[in-house]
Amino acid sequence: MKQYEFKVDSASSQERLDIFLSLQQVELSRSRLKKLIGEGQVQVNETQRPARYKVRAGDRIVIQVPALVPLDATPEAIPLDIVFEDPYLVVLNKPAGMVIHPAPGHSAGTLVNALLHHCTDLSGIGGVERPGIVHRLDKDTSGLIMVAKTETAHKNLASQFKNREIRKEYLAVVKGNVKADKGTIDSAIGRHKVHRKKMDTRALNSRDAFTEYQVIHRTKDWSYLLLRPKTGRTHQIRVHLASIHHPVIGDKLYGGKFNNLKMERHALHAYRLELKHPVTGIDLSFCAPIPKDLGAFLQSHGYNP
Q1: Last residue of a domain, one of 65, 100, 119
Q2: CA-only gyration radius of the chain, Å
Q3: Full DSSP string of 94-128
Q4: For residues 219 and 207, what is the distance between their CA atoms, to the nearest angstrom?
Q5: 92 contacts: CB under 8 Å, gap ≥ 6
Q6: Do 36 and 73 fall within a single domain?
Q7: Is the pLDDT of residue 129 over 70?
Q8: CATH number at residue 261
Q9: Between β-strands 128-129 and 167-175, what pairing exists: parallel, antiparallel or unpaired?
Q10: pLDDT (0 to 100) of residue 87
Q11: pLDDT for 193 beyond 90
Q12: How large a percentage of the chain has pLDDT more than 70?
């Protein structure tokens, strides 16, 4: 069990307890702190206080951080295509077909199962001994995904995502001839009112979403695009492209099935990832080569990427 101790100065007086603590240290996220407060692991002058408590100058605050709880998932020796790794961060090239988290119907063979075997030095996120999945890729989307190995790294990367400081680029093959050489799709996205597994640009309670695109190559039947999502909504790129009548080839959920254009999965690849290292602040840039199935599709239709 770790213990942290802080004393409130006059400049911090009247701040919320959870906000004060999140500003005093970098290891624990605000959500983690609120959970510890709710569990009675935070004492103010030897008394439990709620997260909304307004701290006062001279208050002595002690945080007790319990030992990590093992994750209920089995480590599996699944090969991983590691692009970068250090004590704080792993960046890997995920193959199409791999699910990120264990879930009903996918209790094994997931990225989390593989990471639990690969990473023997996980510090744990949210009090659980597990890899810190900061962002996600759909099962059939290939390409770059990063994972935090410590709570400090997870907190920093989540902040970079929230502030839109992380740059992502995707490659996709879509139906039809996209006429404009480049553009921005600005359509809010929310849960479909009938089909709960789908997202929709016409849904109620939608959230802003922006995707920039650029045409790399076009034919009368299909176009090859470079995409830069500025937000990170669920299924964002797939939904946005379907909304302008250019769904991703092979995307069975959003209408990308065509007789003369076939892919076993949707033709979407997370190609580039740029960020600041969560601890050192150094600029990092990673690239994942075009996967074999996507390259084979392009070559079979007359384009050599």
Answers
A1: 65
A2: 22
A3: EPTT--SS-BTTBSSSSHHHHHHHH-S----BTTE
A4: 33
A5: 80, 81, 82, 83, 144, 145, 146, 147
A6: no
A7: no
A8: 3.30.2350.10
A9: unpaired
A10: 92
A11: no
A12: 96
Residue carrying structure tokens 């597990």: 130
Using CA atoms, how far apart are residues 54 and 19, in angstroms rounded to an integer?
10
Backbone angles phi, psi at 283, to 5 degrees: -70, 130
Q: Catalytic one among 138, 140, 200, 251?
A: 138
Residue 160: its pLDDT value, please?
94
Residues 183 and 238 in one domain: yes
305 domain-assigned: no
- CA atoms of 225 and 216, how far apart (whole Å): 5
Does the annotation count 138 as an active-site position? Answer: yes
Instruction: List alpha helices for the chain, DSSP H.
Output: 17-24, 30-38, 111-118, 151-162, 236-243, 292-300
Contact 172, 256 (CB under 8 A): no
Residue 235 confidence (pLDDT): 96
- Residue 82 sits in which domain range? 69-162
